[in-house]
Amino acid sequence: MTLSARERTLSIVVGGAVFVLLNLLLVKAFVQRNAGYRQDLALSQGEWATMQEELGSADMWKKRDEAVTAKQPKLTNQNAAGVELLDLVTAIAKGHNISLVNKVVGGVTKQKGYKSVPVTVETHSIWPDLISFLYALQKPDQFIVCERVDIKVDESDASKMEGQFTIARWYAP
Q1: pLDDT at 162 over 80
Q2: CB 108 within 8 A of CB 115
């Protein structure tokens, strides 16, 4: 069977169109994969740079870990730790004109890397006194943290603040 000139032209045009479409699909797939590989490469290079930075600062982190380990208090008496913390919080609160109510001493909980002894208190004060109280309470060498904080304006007196705090001392594991 022989093709006429018109049929040959039509088959060449259809064949060329199929060839062009297949090439477009292949090029599109190549471009998408190339973009994915470039993104993966950029992520890998970022991770590598982060690892190199961490490796370079390993001595600093080792020294900081040693300093924290040396300064972090050891839990010697589990029964008295909560009461001691409550006494300390009460003393700091008195020095900053903070009234404490509903004081509750919690039990020792073990966390990854430390033991926590919490105390829950409610406070009533003016805003500047509350800020100075929190600043005095959370000195770096005391290992005291506010694990839960809920502060709001006192409904009966808009110039005062009410707060509910779970304050804990973190001891060495």
Answers
A1: yes
A2: yes
Q: Taking the model in full, what pTM does it have?
A: 0.65
Which residues fall within 8 angstroms of residue 168, CB to CB, at 6 or more apart?
85, 106, 116, 117, 118, 119, 144, 145, 146, 147
Other beta carbons within 10 Å of 144:
20
The pLDDT tens digits for 80-89 are 888 999 999 9
Instruction: Return the structure tokens found at 22.
Output: 């297949």
pLDDT at residue 25 greater than cutoff 90: yes
Which tokens belong to 160? Answer: 């005062």
Do 108 and 75 touch, CB atoms closer than 8 A?
A: yes
73-171 belongs to CATH 1.20.1560.10: no
